[in-house]
UniProtKB/TrEMBL annotation, chain A:
This is tRNA (Adenosine(37)-N6)-threonylcarbamoyltransferase complex dimerization subunit type 1 TsaB. InterPro entries: ATPase_NBD, Gcp-like_dom, T6A_TsaB. Residues 32-144 form the Gcp-like domain.
UniProtKB/TrEMBL annotation, chain B:
Binds 1 Fe(2+) ion per subunit. This is tRNA N6-adenosine threonylcarbamoyltransferase. The keyword Cytoplasm applies. Its cofactor is Fe(2+). The gene is tsaD. Its main location: cytoplasm. Signal peptide: none annotated. It catalyses: L-threonylcarbamoyladenylate + adenosine(37) in tRNA = N(6)-L-threonylcarbamoyladenosine(37) in tRNA + AMP + H(+). Substrate binds at residues 137-141, 171, 184, 188, 280. GO terms for molecular function: tRNA N(6)-L-threonylcarbamoyladenine synthase activity. Belongs to the KAE1 / TsaD family. Residues 352-367 have a biased composition (Basic and acidic residues). Residues 332-367 are annotated as: Disordered.
Amino acid sequence: MLLLALDTATPAVTAALHDGRTVLAESSSVDARRHGELLLPAVDRVLAEAGVKLDAVTQIVVGTGPGPYTGLRVGLMTAMTFGSALGTPVHGLCTLDGLAYASGLEGDFVVATDARRKEVYWARYDGSRTRVTEPAVDRPAEIAEQVAGLPAVGAGALLYPDTFPDARAPEHVSAGALAALAAEKLAAGEELTEPRPLYLRRPDAQVPKNYKVVTPK
Amino acid sequence: MADEPLVLGIETSCDETGVGIVRGTTLLADAVASSVDEHARFGGVVPEVASRAHLEAMVPTIERALKDAGVSARDLDGISVTAGPGLAGALLVGVSAAKAYAYALGKPLYGVNHLASHICVDQLEHGPLPEPTMALLVSGGHSSLLLSADITSDVRPLGATIDDAAGEAFDKIARVLNLGFPGGPVIDRYAKEGDPNAIAFPRGLTGPRDPAYDFSFSGLKTAVARWIEAKRNAGEDVPVRDVSASFQEAVVDVLTRKAVRACKDEGVEHLMIGGGVAANSRLRALAQERCDKAGIQLRVPRPKLCTDNGAMVAALGAEMVARGRSASDWDLSADSSLPVTEPHVPGHAHTHSHDHVHETAKDNLYG
Ligand SMILES: [Zn+2]
């Protein structure tokens, strides 16, 4: 197995190669405004570091978010196009699951990332491999009761200490963790999801400045 | 000719997911998936709706184009993509796909300019572009007069709209007349049965002291809306056909008058008209009439090539390959305000003097 993992659902632009046992190479940089520019060079770096070409990859795994849409789509579009060009299977994995896995936490905890607009993307976990709620987007104050007393990982937790007093690292997802989790699941015969974005919000129907109709019908 | 470059082009600057394949100046495939129906109920293109639709449609559209063209992706000589201008988030989906495709297949990548592509597409219809060519680009997003001496390296803006694009004016008047979205085709249809001289609507920026090649449609739009409102307030029926014809006449009169004047002033013998509004039947007819009178050769591609599509991007990409222009780098960015003076975005190794331009030109990509 040679697995390429990508994630652009958080401010981190991250790519990693995994051979089924260990991470062979990883490249991560944090720049929430340059996912589009940074991802392909990151893929190129990890492949070069491992001394392989893209067509040697047997599985592609991409973080499906939830995350800010513009960046999120960069990873998904890249993974899906790689898959189409080379006939490589492409799987999706919830980005929050990658963060949970990287945390190594036992017991109950929360993963929360920054959803902007004063909201967080979040889910609850029972151990680092088991998500117990569907990913959701909410204002921190509105979920304070549901997450009270629980450790929390991710930038969303670090941003809102009133709601998440026990916030911990990692702040952003790493493709290495995503790859390791995916490799573990694939080896265990678990199905991964389709590479489809978890938007969680309907699109803003921001119509360009309308000409006001002067007389109704 | 089999040794002409085989190029796949990707276009996502607005609401059309376009993938075209050309060999030199020959069109092999023009696959388009449009999200226009999803925008119709909003009366205009909603950027996030467009971006979501691009992500869904991209891979199937690429695969359909390859099938239509009957070529193998392995045989491509390059991948081109609209790098700008356009909607930032929408552009980014196409740029991401093009980069991934080019990288996976080991092909050179060409980030190209959307406006230059609208001009270059005419090569697929009428053969190589004469040099120089004057171009009138009119659509919902642009209204520009451009002088192209070399479509891969030398495109000069002579004039542009100072307010609304021509296509926007059509959309807005269609909305005031309750005719739906998009407005261009429906107004064209009603106008055919109306009198273009029924109402004397104003011709913007045509005074002796006005800029010769710039356009303005905002005043016209207001004048038409007021005229309709006055009719309705008086309890009279609005003569939709005459309003459509008179409004349309005002728009195409100004467009063709200025385009022909630019050709004469610059000594250019060829005028091409592109962009979605080039599908307008009255614009085509009046342009033909005035060009014939002035001894100018008019080139207007068929309507499907005038609207946004991937073939036009492939056409410009093929020209880049044919003329040995340098490929773009893997960190190519989508630039929502890419200037028309940059027909393509070459790699850094070749553009030291331009680096600062790229760093300052990226605005609100993630706004
Ligand atoms: Zn266009």
